[in-house]
Amino acid sequence: MKIFKTIISLSFLLITGSCISKFMPETSENIAMIVIDGLITDQPEADTIKLYNSIPLGDKDRIIPVRGCTALIEDDLGNVFYLSEIAGGKYVTDPEEFRGVIGVKYTLKVFTNSPSEFNYSYQSYPMEMKPVPPIDELYYEKTVVREPAEGVSLAEGCEIFLNTHDETDDCRFYKWEYQEIWEIFLPFDIVNKKCWVSNNSTNISVKNTSLLSENRIEKHPLLAISNETDRLAIKYSLLVNQYSLNEEEYIYWSKLKEATENVGSLYDITPSSIIGNMFCVEDPGQVVLGYFSVSAKSSKRLFIKDNFAGLVNKLPDCIDYETGSSWPPPYLNKLVWNIIYCNVCMPPYFAYTYDRSCADCTVRGTKIKPDYWDENE
Fold it and tell me: What is the pTM of this model?
């Protein structure tokens, strides 16, 4: 989802202003454009295609789903697989019927079905599913965020890396995405005190080994975790997905990565100039944003349960008012204030906070422990 927001917001670049007034140039990019983006893999899981309309320049950062379309995938063996719309603009395959096969070429076709507008049909160029090697190693290294000094303690975080290689040379272009899961615990006498928080990657991480003498990637950086977050406080998990790309898709993601990192002026590269692999059948000159990705996938999970010095404890920020009274004042407005009992504090006390997440961990996460959480224990 975040990638779609990036594509859409970048499609209509916010123009640099001055301290006097904002300059909003006349541009053809005020015209709404369709975004067709998604991924199919060789894994036994539902694959997702998302359809959105872009937004005009200067509009708020939002997405407009394209509903009621017919979406299907054809392969070069003559098979056709229909997708179902499970939410606005979100179309998925049936894992009971469809699973990508390495070496087969796939074409995505989309037909709009608006009763009040002229309907277009869109399709991708045939895309071959390339094999991908497994991730050899996924590991972390502690980093010093702040050196110890007089009156200042040591603070540590970590960086996470991966190693991979392909002896067959079938995969020379790689892409990575990840999902973070970490445990949080509120040390108060409340019902919802232990939860698991999740977060998906938003950055674009790609690598090309075609110019290297050996198809090997070592110590590729995935992300850095500072001491300013509670990710490393108890237990943390990272699931990394590694995808195979062809050269054209690698170029697409590299250009989009450059665009996201260099937004800021009229002269930066804009996503409307980054051509994907989708086109409009009735109007080939129509700009279609996004990319239909066809990739094999390999995955690896990392757990981190370690002691890190100097992690920031934000729980004291929860307390707006505290009292030793055994019960809060009768005039307390519970629609505004949240009551928590600090039973681990000495002496124990009641506290009142405006922040609901301090009194209920489900504001940030879920109480359902992941099935794999105790795998490494």
Answer: 0.84
